[in-house]
Structure formats: C-alpha cells, structure tokens
Amino acid sequence: MRNSFRLLASIFALALAGSAFAEAPHGEAQLNGAERLRVKSCGRSGGAVTLDFEIQPLACAASILPCPKDGSWSLTGTPAPLSGLSRGGPRVARLSLHDQSLGALEAALEAEASEICGEAIDLSSLHAGGALKISKSREHARLVLFASARATSANGDASRATYRVRARGAWQAALTP
Length: 177
What we know:
Blueprint: H1 2-21, E1 27-39, E2 43-57, E3 70-76, E4 82-88, E5 92-97, H2 99-117, E6 121-134, E7 140-153, E8 158-173
C-alpha cells in the first residue's frame, strides 16, 4: 500500500512539473526579415519578406500525464504558404513541413531558380526545416527556415540550390484556457 502511494504521488508530481515546464511555444507573430535563394554556378536572389507565423497546440486527450509538446504551424508570405508540425520546449520549436507544403515549396523554388539561371531547373532531393526561438521575456521571436536540394539544368548540368529565410518580430503568446 505504501509503495503504491509513493508511485501515485510521484506520477502526480511529474504531471504537475511536466505541465509547468512542457509548455511549447504557442502563439503568433508578424515577422520581418530576408530570404535568399542561391543556385551554385548560376547566381542568387533575395530580398525583404514579411511573414505571418502561427503555432497552434495539437489536440490532446485529458490524462494525468502532460500533453505532448507538439503543435501545428502555418506561415504565409514566403514563395508558397507553408505548414507543418512543431516539436520543442518552452522557447524553441523545431519545424518540419507537411508533404503538401514541401511540394509547394519545391515548385516555387524551381520557378525562382529557373529565373535566376535563365533556363529550366529541376530540383530533387529537397530537404527543408526550420526553427522558431522565443526570447526569455517571451516578447520577441526569431524564425529560421532553410531548404537545400540538388539542382539539374535542362542540359544536364548538376548543381546545388539552397534557400534560407531569417526573420524576427514581436511574439504574441496564445492564451491558455
């Protein structure tokens, strides 16, 4: 009986501590920054961007244990609207893209790379991800998105293409019920 009480007390303490420290960064921000697409041996382009970014918590069934620190995110203002899953702790969220967003990003980057090179460019093996970091005061956010791919021109020349977005702005944390 005594051991089961200790086990139950430990689980309850972990649940309370976990819910206090497992809060993932959920909220929204309007971020300003810059993007750059570079195609090796062809050139690069870039410019200023304004992004609308949002992270929402994933649905979680009520239980004693804390909910996972995952969320879903969406971003508008890049070459294509993007969305995906986020994982992380209280101030940092690692971002991965949904398959549909990865396809839309690839198509947008292919068009931009073709314009840079002046000929049709095909991107393959696209890898993309990102991170959102919230300041200690929870008032500011920094976003980094990146993508890299193999680029092949219409005449068969192989190269690499890299895409990067860096932006920052005021963070508005979501109100928790």
